[in-house]
Every structure is written in C-alpha cells, then in structure tokens.
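Design a sequence for this backbone.
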C-alpha cells in the first residue's frame, strides 16, 4: 500500500520547502555581499542587485556598501581572519573564499528545496543569485549561463514586476557578452532590455496621466530613464564599424 499525504499535509510541506528555499537564498546573498570587492567599478551599478528583489533592508544595505565602502569591508575581513594567517592579504583571500563557499552551499540547499518546483519566481531568485556571484568573481560566462537559464523560468512565473526583472536580466546578459567581446550578442541583449524598459516607462507615464489623485512615480521614471540612457550609449558603442557605411532603418528599441 502506497502512502499518499493529504492535500493539507502536502500544501504544508510545499510551503515549508518554499520558505526554506527563500531563507537559503537570502543567506547566500548575505554571504556574497560580505565579500570585499577590489575592483573600482561595479559592472551592474546602474541596475538592481539581487538584494533589491527581496524585502530585506539588511541585504540591501550590504549590497549598497559592497563597492561604496571597500576599505570598511577589508578592515572587517582582516579583523575576522587575523587568527588564520599573519599576512593580511592571505587573510582576506581566505575569508573571501570561505564566504563564497558558504554562499554556494546555501544556494545548493535552496536548489534542492526547489527541485520539484522549477517554474517559480524563487527558482529565478536562486539562478540570478548564482549569476551575481559569478559576476562578482569576474566569471562572465558562468554569470551569463545562469541569467539565460533564469529567463524562461521567469516567463512561466506569474507575478507583478516580472517584465521589469526580465529587462534587468537581459541587460545583465548583455554586460556579460560585452565583457567577453561578443559585440553582436551584447547588442541583441541590450536591444531586448531597451524595448521592455521603454514600454514600462510609457506605462508609468500613462498611469500618471490617467490618475489625478495618484502621485506620479517620478523616482521610478528617473531610474528607468537613467538605465535607458546608459544602455543606449552601450548599444551605440558596440556598433560594428563599416568601411562603406550605408543608411539603414533605425532600431525601434532605440527610438
């Protein structure tokens, strides 16, 4: 005789697994954002970080300060790892690796909880968290693959804000391609992102005009305008030079 759990028991179990997956994903992000970043430029500074998709002020603060206060992070690292080695730089590298290992472990746990639930926004969270971890470590091919895997899952997940996130993911894929000098693929990803951002901007403007009582979301419009401006510049800079340029129809994403 095969035991089959009651529907309520199954729902409770599913709810527990979803909660644990979310907790592990947030833990992983917390570990990632505690890694001291040495690069002077954050390649996705103009885009939302994964912390921005979670209602967690501590995560958002860690993400915001990771590049802005590298000296503070490095001081914390040295203090935490002083007992491991007398050399401060070795301490920092050891601590950095430990944090990424902890993040990898938590993301693996989250993936296990989501094994039977592939079409979920939480699965998108896990894939994008992995992508951001690769991006922080300079592994653009690894980051790109995670973001590409996340897109179809996002398309199959119902939820408010999915279009904005799809645009963000396409922009990050473009950044990965650009870093690998895949110019045409980068332009294609940027064009996809621009189409979505422009549609969202028009939607915000229409909502503001149709509602006299609602305060216009100027801050959100400002954010979108900034992203659109940066992506237009990146798109234009990636244009392949021609020996004998000929007039061509403008790309509608850039209008």
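Sequence:
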């Amino acid at each position: 005789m095969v035991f089959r759990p009651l529907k309520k028991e199954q729902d409770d179990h599913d709810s527990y697994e979803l909660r644990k997956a979310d907790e592990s994903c947030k833990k992983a992000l917390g570990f990632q954002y505690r890694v001291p970043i040495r690069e002077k430029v954050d390649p996705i500074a103009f885009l939302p970080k994964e912390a921005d998709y979670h209602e967690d002020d501590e995560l958002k603060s860690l993400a915001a300060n990771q590049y802005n206060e590298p000296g503070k992070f490095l001081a914390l690292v040295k203090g935490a790892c002083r007992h491991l080695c007398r050399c401060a730089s070795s301490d920092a590298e050891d601590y950095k690796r430990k944090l990424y290992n902890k993040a990898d472990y938590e993301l693996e746990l989250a993936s296990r909880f989501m094994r039977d639930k592939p079409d979920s926004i939480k699965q998108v969270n896990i894939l994008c968290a992995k992508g951001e971890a690769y991006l922080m470590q300079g592994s653009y091919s690894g980051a790109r693959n995670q973001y590409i895997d996340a897109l179809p899952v996002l398309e199959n997940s119902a939820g408010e804000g999915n279009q904005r996130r799809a645009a963000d993911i396409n922009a990050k894929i473009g950044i990965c391609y650009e870093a690998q000098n895949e110019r045409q693929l980068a332009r294609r990803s940027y064009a996809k992102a621009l189409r979505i951002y422009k549609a969202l901007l028009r939607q915000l403007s229409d909502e503001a005009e149709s509602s006299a009582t609602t305060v216009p979301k100027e801050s959100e419009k400002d954010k979108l305008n900034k992203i659109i401006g940066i992506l237009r510049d990146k798109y234009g800079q990636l244009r392949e030079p021609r020996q004998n340029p000929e007039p061509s129809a403008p790309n509608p994403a850039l209008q």
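Confidence is low (pLDDT under 50) at residues 76-88.
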